[in-house]
Design brief:
Blueprint: H1 14-29, E1 35-39, E2 46-52, E3 63-69, E4 80-83, H2 112-125, H3 135-143, H4 145-159, H5 176-199
Antiparallel strand pairs: 1-2, 2-3, 3-4
Helix pairs in contact: 2-5, 3-4
């Protein structure tokens, strides 16, 4: 398990490191709505971010910390994503690992960090019980949504709520371009979900 926490900087080409650094700088100065990025100057492959729980979901009001780990073959192979904040979600395992197609078979080397963060945020809006890592959450989502919602909200209240004194900066909230990008990712997920439900 230690492998995921060790640095991969020495394995990445200087060109890739430059590209990642550039993207992270852009994200830090111009973050997508509801997402804040934290870079590690010592280790560019250790990327952390917080995602605000989207309105209208059981995660609303929570701030979820996630970590994106770039492997030595990045961007040829996808990075790994982990929730550092405890969450009750079908696509997040007990140890926080995130299961989403973008980080598996749908990965393309040109997708970039922003796409990953938006996809994870989208997963909070549209969980995918088809690829559940947390079977209990997946089962509840499909069979007893109210119970799933109640449990997810309770976990959010316990683990992801921050005190009102630490103000979350939502100044980015009204930028239409970012919202469009997010909507596009989510719309695709919605269509995929409808297709999956039809199959059931």
């Amino acid at each position: 398990m230690m492998a995921t926490t060790s640095s991969n900087v020495e394995n990445l080409s200087p060109q890739i490191i430059k590209q990642v650094a550039r993207e992270l700088q852009g994200l830090a100065s111009n973050p997508p709505e509801g997402i804040k990025i934290f870079t590690n100057d010592e280790d560019i492959t250790d990327i952390q971010a917080t995602i605000e729980g989207p309105t209208g979901t059981p995660y609303e009001g929570g701030i979820f910390k996630i970590k994106v780990v770039l492997g030595k073959d990045f961007p040829a192979s996808p990075p790994k994503g982990f929730f550092l904040t405890t969450i009750f979600h079908p696509n997040v395992s007990k140890n926080g690992e995130i299961c989403v197609n973008t980080l598996k078979k749908d990965w393309k080397p040109d997708l970039g960090i922003q796409h990953i963060l938006l996809t994870v945020k989208c997963l909070l809006i549209h969980p995918n019980p088809e690829s559940a890592l947390n079977e209990e959450a997946g089962k509840l989502l499909l069979e007893r949504y109210d119970d799933y919602s109640k449990r997810a909200r309770m976990m959010t209240d316990i683990h992801a709520k921050i005190s009102s004194s630490s103000n979350v900066d939502t100044s980015q909230a009204s930028l239409p371009g970012k919202k469009r990008a997010m909507d596009k990712v989510c719309d695709k997920k919605k269509k995929d979900k409808k297709r999956a439900i039809k199959r059931l």
